[in-house]
């Protein structure tokens, strides 16, 4: 498949980066009155996610295409995007000493003049300003997989002739912590705290089992929406949190750095296995459990300060039973953030996709008796509030939001594959191509 860079980057291409970023972003304490600079913002997912915590965020990227996608998909009233080179951002007189905080995630290893970029970012910070910079570390011989991948291709019988003259623009950071601190200070940083972390991620190919599809593009859609709303639930250091339908645990682990403990439950044994393997933490526990029965566990009744349930209830026919069960797990005065797909079967694309397949000349015979287990929530705000109160919730604040996302072909295919996973007998790549 041929995709443009920005659309590939939106899905699996940036999943590895995003997973690492989420493990470290809370090291930079963002405050409501602050102005933040995001250097190398890409398509703006982290840019927009920070916007809910601060006064304003300015995202800059050298790629016009990235900025265009960011403006289209991750705009907000307090977010501004601009095409700008990281090495020259400090030359903009409007940005010198303007920002309280800056972030630069997985950008500097693409810039040969990284010290010039470091000076430029430093120049944009107010006196006493802080930055969080994440860069790929290693050497080209044996510690990083991209140089090894290039070496493999050059020696490959089939591909070698095409890449013999290829030179990667990747500049891995291979200085020690002490040497890095010296470089930062030479670039105008008053203080530099540096650490080296090894991260291991489970990444999928396009055709894998559902939990692995879900880890990449299949969950990108959900994650993008979650990040726009998660700050509506104020998490505090002493809170115990229940994540109902935790999936592979990305959000579960991201919340763990803000609270006392998080318990993630999911009905899928496979999801829980992946979560334990890839998103464990000392204060995170995972368990296989049905959302409808979580309140039946005596150890969990009235135990949690907060609960989250993201894109789960529309897969449960007895959603009111699940709502009662989640409510039973909260302490008196506890709060929850629940996100569910809303609409009717005419307006939502998954039922339309199913209808298309049933009427398709090639695939119709395979899916005539197919019934989706998707139960879209189609009650009004007022009706939803009544249902929640009937399920034991003292107060319910509800809203309907429309989200538009730019998806690449691979993203759309894997998202559809996870949602239409009950159609196992058709070659997925073939019917997804027709969709």
TrEMBL record:
Residue ranges of every copy of the Methyltransferase domain listed in the record: 36-129, 241-334
InterPro entries per the UniProt record, alphabetical: Methyltransf_25, SAM-dependent_MTases_sf
Signal sequence range: none
Coiled-coil regions, chain positions: none
Single GO MF annotation: polyprenyldihydroxybenzoate methyltransferase activity
Gene3D superfamilies recorded: Vaccinia Virus protein VP39
Name of the protein this chain belongs to: Methyltransferase domain-containing protein
